[in-house]
Known about the structure:
Blueprint: H1 4-7, H2 10-19, E1 24-29, E2 32-35, E3 43-44, E4 49-58, E5 66-74, E6 79-85, H3 92-103
Parallel strand pairs: 1-6
Antiparallel strand pairs: 1-2, 2-3, 4-5, 5-6
Amino acid sequence: MQDKEEERSLINVERQLNKEGYTEDFRVTEGRLHTLNNERNKSYAPSEVTIVDFYRFEGESDPDDMSILYALETTDGVRGTISSAYGTYGDSDALEFLKQVEDLGKNLSKKNK
């Protein structure tokens, strides 16, 4: 039986998302979301991206050591993830981009069953 904290580790969540088809790694530069896969080599505006889900992780010993992992899908069907630290260590480009996506209403709400 897995420990609850272990289940929610960044690595395990990434592994599960990968199984669900979120295989691309993204980064944000110059206000656009870019694929890290050199063969695909695409970039997207906030209007071309949907936040499918997100996961927050807190550091064990330091509450300031927090990060967030986003599961994203683009208008042409590319699915992947991007992660960023919170606060002082946060990737301001990525966080600003994702805020724009949210402001456009491009985040899917999870339906509770």
